[in-house]
Specification:
Shape: globular
Oligomer: single chain
Number of strands: 20
Radius of gyration: 24 Å
Number of helices: 17
Strand content: 15-25%
Largest sheet: 8 strands, mixed
Helix content: 25-40%
Length: about 475
């Protein structure tokens, strides 16, 4: 939780970057791209390969099985909307050496292990594909032969592979969703207002670009002030009324003018994101002028984009990963513990109102002031009880610290930020003593913040770590 700065301090901090100011004509041009908002990612390309013989004396799968898989994947492609399956080679009859060059056009590989009979040839072909280094998923149904015994060696060798020995084809839905993350990150642009905060690696634009492909776009406070002024009051009043005032359970402290100013800031940030082609924004100035960022971040997260408070780059990257993998927004939290209730308590002053995803129903919310300053506009969102959650943070660009829990209580303690909820965790005392799991160094925000997401995504994040090559460490 940060203190406020006055306007003169804002302008002093931001003067060096004033050359990139987005003014009237640029913002007006951005308005013409409303049909492209929110921006959509180009589909990730996943190369499918069928390995092993079908039919004949070593019948493992009937030949019709491949057609069934193709139909299933076509339906999945349509359902997800941001993946495209390419390829479809059968090995044999196609020689694997003919397949390998084709993988250069793919973001990942989905291999179906149809049959392990017929000598070492299937295993050798699969190993050559895994060794190409692309994120690879191997789906193997029961009775597909004995080759499965050798598959775990790939994971032990550090290959980017997820093994799925399963009879449930719907397991493919989740893992294919994970395969979108890396290619989507490589196309992601993040607006960073007044500089990033977090672990040293996450705050380095060069390292973020090299490791994940994301581009960090610096934005000065002066740019936001001018962009805010460029938004018409009429547009801001419409936005405030339609998305916030008319939908709130209650407006407690803020005036209508303050609410309109916050809505105006959302429209300003939206236009800057459109102009820069950005999918995310984070700001270390989110508690200052021209308006607090709580409304802005909440609505961006409702839309399936990412808005992250306090310039927290580690949490921004975490939220992008979960967004691309599971289509759920994150809640950045300043957590505290209560070992008496085996609880990790989460609270902050901004929160998405569609925590189950952009197509979900909005959660009940009140419009409040921000707790620390008792000024500006913030959100008090009512979380559902008995909801499973995942608490995570991707730190140092190489490690995901993670835990899970269930919401069992919602409070409104005046000592905490506006949105508050208690989660029952595996072992609160152990988590308290193990906070950060020895993986995090840096300032308060680096060590304190986590992002909370609806759903238990523990296993999926472990699979994502295998596909992308990062560590997953449980904090409990």
């Amino acid at each position: 939780m940060s203190g406020q700065m006055n306007r003169r301090e804002f302008l002093g901090v931001s003067a060096a970057g004033a050359g990139a100011v987005l003014l009237g004509s640029q913002l007006a041009a951005a308005q013409g791209n409303e049909e492209n908002w929110p921006p959509k990612m180009t589909p990730a390309k996943i190369y499918k390969v069928y390995i092993g013989r079908t039919g004949g004396i070593y019948l493992s799968r009937p030949t019709a099985e491949v057609d069934k898989f193709n139909r299933y994947l076509a339906d999945l492609e349509s359902k997800l909307g941001d993946v495209k399956f390419i390829g479809g080679d059968m090995v044999p009859a196609t020689d694997v050496e003919q397949v390998l060059p084709k993988l250069a056009e793919a973001d990942g590989v989905l291999m179906f292990h149809l049959c392990g009979h017929g000598g070492d040839a299937p295993l050798q072909a699969m190993t050559k594909i895994v060794d190409k280094g692309l994120p690879t998923v191997v789906f193997s149904q029961p009775f597909s032969g004995h080759g499965w015994m050798y598959f775990p060696v790939w994971a032990k060798q550090g290959k980017k592979v997820v093994l799925m020995p399963s009879s449930n084809w719907s397991d493919l839905d989740q893992v294919v969703g994970l395969m979108r993350v890396k290619p989507h990150l490589a196309k992601t642009r993040i607006l960073v207002i007044r500089g990033p905060v977090g672990t040293a690696a996450a705050c380095s634009a060069e390292q973020v670009k090299a490791k994940l492909g994301c581009e960090m776009i610096p934005v000065t406070v002066e740019e936001t002030l001018k962009a805010h002024q460029a938004v018409s009051l009429k547009d801001a009043e419409t936005e405030a009324q339609q998305y916030w005032i008319s939908k709130a359970k209650k407006i407690v402290e803020p005036t209508k003018d303050e609410i309109v100013s916050s809505a105006r800031f959302y429209l300003a940030v939206k236009r800057m994101m459109m102009e820069k082609g950005a999918q995310a924004v984070t700001s270390s100035n989110c508690m200052g002028e021209p308006a607090k960022g709580c409304f802005t971040f909440s609505k961006l997260n409702d839309l399936g984009l990412v808005g992250a408070c306090e310039g927290d780059m580690d949490s921004t990257l975490t939220m992008l990963m979960f967004d691309y993998a599971f289509n759920v927004p994150g809640f950045i939290t300043d957590p505290v513990f209560d070992v008496a209730n085996n609880a990790l308590i989460h609270f902050h002053c901004t929160c998405a109102t569609k925590m189950a995803g952009p197509k979900s129903k909005r959660l009940p919310f009140q419009i409040r002031t921000q707790t620390d300053s008792d000024k500006g506009v913030a959100l008090e969102v009512e979380m559902p009880l008995n909801q499973a959650v995942t608490c995570a943070k991707f730190v140092n660009l190489d490690t995901m610290v993670i835990s899970t829990g269930d919401i069992f209580k919602v409070t409104h303690d005046e000592l905490g930020c506006r949105t508050q909820f208690w989660t029952r965790v595996k072992d609160a005392r152990s988590m308290f003593q193990n906070w950060g799991a020895g993986q995090i160094e840096g300032g308060v925000m680096a060590l304190l913040h986590r992002a909370v997401f609806f759903g238990d995504h523990m296993q999926s994040i472990k699979d994502l770590g295998s596909l992308m090559g990062f560590k997953v460490v449980e904090e409990a």
